[in-house]
Specification:
The chain folds into 2 domains: about 180 residues, Rossmann fold (3-Layer(aba) Sandwich); about 130 residues, Rossmann fold (3-Layer(aba) Sandwich), CATH 3.40.50. It is about 35% helix and about 20% strand. The chain has 12 helices and 14 strands. It is globular and about 60 Å long.
Length: about 325
């Protein structure tokens, strides 16, 4: 079994789904000849041709609008937005049309669209290239939001997203595009949407995270275990719909929780998770739930980026406040 990066796993998923279903196609800026800015679609133009791997003008609104029309027509388009900071120009199309067409048409039409969105910091990119903007989409009715944390997860989740009958924002953490490898089956498999996974079982505290933040969370858990606290780690995988059952069951077992994400704290997905824990498991808590997040500022330029992103040290500090409450 080959050890792949996240980029290679996504490329493999795209290739296999395009071979399996002639309705699947790709469109976006530089996705064809150049293989995308991160080379995720590299080689696909040579296999499937310009009719199914389409370079578009530099217009995110047009990319989203055309893809939505294709999806409603019966195709299964995969639209790439080069960087998450460019997606705001497409928000009107995504929120008002992709997210609403099923309801607006009373179920006569649906929109099997995937928007691939490289997102987050950690690659020393300039402004507009390092946002963690998942909350916009989680807050948008009719949209599913998926964030892989490893190569294996990336392939299985993307295949599920492509086959889903509704629009999916597939957010790819740039920080882990090539920073880790793991075994990924060549054969087809899926990772179901809407189901979190228990990465590590534990009884001392629950650590809840997703995407690139899984790695510092794992590092923190390893250090905590040396000091006697065995953490349970939850990788959410899907932010909308959110797997509340797995979160609540874990908190009822450990009685403590920390949520880790790189987006700003205010109105971040972590706040929603804390609210659900309070609603469903408040009497089980032995300490307030802590959040380890980015700051309520614009992502700084590269020299300060490492001070913005959560790391293992910040996770351990929050866990210690909870354990020692």
């Amino acid at each position: 079994m080959a050890k792949l990066t996240v980029v290679e796993a996504i490329n493999l998923a795209l290739k296999q789904e395009m071979e399996k279903d002639h309705r699947v196609l790709i469109l976006g800026e530089d996705v064809g000849k150049n293989g995308g800015v991160f080379r995720v679609t590299q080689g696909l133009l040579d296999i499937f041709g310009e009719a199914r791997v389409m370079d578009t003008p530099l217009s995110e609104s047009a990319i989203a609008g055309v893809a939505i029309g294709m999806a409603i027509y019966g195709l299964r388009p995969i639209a790439e937005i080069q960087f998450e900071g460019f997606v705001y120009a497409a928000m009107e199309q995504i929120a008002n049309h992709a997210g609403r067409i099923r309801t607006r048409s009373r179920g006569r039409y649906h929109c099997p669209l995937v928007v691939r969105l490289p997102y987050g910091g950690g690659i020393r990119a300039p402004e507009h290239h390092s946002d963690s903007n998942e909350t916009y989409f989680v807050h948008t009715p009719g949209i599913k939001v998926v964030v892989p944390s490893t190569p294996y997860e990336a392939k299985g989740l993307l295949i599920s997203a492509i086959r889903d009958p509704d629009p999916v924002i597939f957010m790819e953490p740039k920080k882990i595009y090539r920073s880790l490898r793991e075994e990924v089956p060549e054969d087809e498999y899926i990772v179901p949407l809407g189901e979190a996974r228990i990465v590590q079982e534990g009884t001392g505290i629950t650590l809840i995270t997703w995407g690139a933040m899984l790695q510092p969370t794992l590092q923190a858990a390893a250090l905590m275990e040396k000091n006697g606290t065995k953490a349970e780690i939850i990788d959410l995988r899907t932010l909308s719909p959110l797997d509340s059952e797995t979160i609540i069951a874990s908190v009822k077992k450990t009685h403590r929780a920390v949520v880790v994400h790189e987006a700003p704290a205010t109105c971040g997905v972590g706040a929603e998770i804390v609210a659900r824990i309070n609603e469903k498991a408040l009497v089980y808590l032995e300490a307030p739930v802590q959040r380890v997040t980015g700051f309520d500022t614009i992502m700084p330029l590269p020299k300060l980026e490492k001070y913005y992103l959560p790391d293992a040290g910040r996770v351990i500090e929050a866990a210690n406040r909870t354990v020692n409450f």
